[in-house]
Amino acid sequence: MINVEQEEEERLAAAFNDHVSARDFPCVGAKAAMGRGRLATLVCNDIASAWDDMRIHEKLLDWSHAYAREPQLFRSLAVIFGRPRALSEAQFEHHMWERIQSLADKDEWRGQTYDHAVSPDPSDPHFGLSFGGQAYFVVGLHPNASRLARRFERPVLVFNLHDQFEQLRADQRYERMRETILERDVALAGDINPMLARHGEVSEASQYSGRLVDGDWQCPFKDKRA
């Protein structure tokens, strides 16, 4: 018999897939990844705990190495934290960066090189995370997100590979996809997301949590390989 924990993991994974496939969900990149069977989910315990960090890092290494062997567009890894938490946007952001810092520390400890396509400095407009030698950016979702597109019943961190978007730029497909996402987000929320910017214009770090921050915001992250 399937135990309650496994049942809940399966329910959350299915619920996230349903969330992405919903007609009004704006991110067409995530929809494309799911349609191609390349939206993976990993259900963990608590975003406020380091309990599953090694497990998450192992999955990121596997994800990075698989991409290096066979680069494919539209790949996303969604880490869903199953413990219910009534987090404010600031609290979610705090725990999100705790997890990211822990994962980056493990990447350095295990001798992984930083992807030179991005900068490890979160104040740099070309900043990006790096796990297993591949650059990533993160999209955070949680129940109390102010942006409707960032709401889900549990905290989620979606890891997206930078290189696939460079491929889209090279194919001259990136701008149209970005415009489509913005149009769909406006249709959902009624206004444009003020935190969205192109990579290389401003640091992407301020966009990860989905919280509206001002120009004085400082990213609480420091990679030892910087």
Describe the structure.
The chain has 226 residues and is of the alpha+beta class. It is built from six helices and five strands. Strand 3 (129-131) and strand 4 (134-141) form a beta hairpin.
Characteristic terms for this protein:
about 230 residues, alpha+beta, globular
Entry summary:
The chain has 226 residues and is of the alpha+beta class.
| Class from secondary-structure proportions | alpha+beta
Percentage of β-strand residues: 5-15%
> How are the strands of the largest sheet arranged?
1-2-5-4-3
Radius of gyration over alpha carbons?
Answer: 17 Å
Mean pLDDT across all residues, rounded? 89
**Quantity of strands, as a count:** 5
Please tally the helical runs, counting DSSP H or I stretches of 4 or more residues: 6
Give helix % range: 25-40%
Shape: globular
List the helices and strands and how they pair.
Blueprint: H1 4-21, H2 28-35, E1 39-44, H3 53-69, E2 76-81, H4 89-109, E3 129-131, E4 134-141, E5 156-161, H5 162-170, H6 174-189
Helix pairs in contact: 3-4
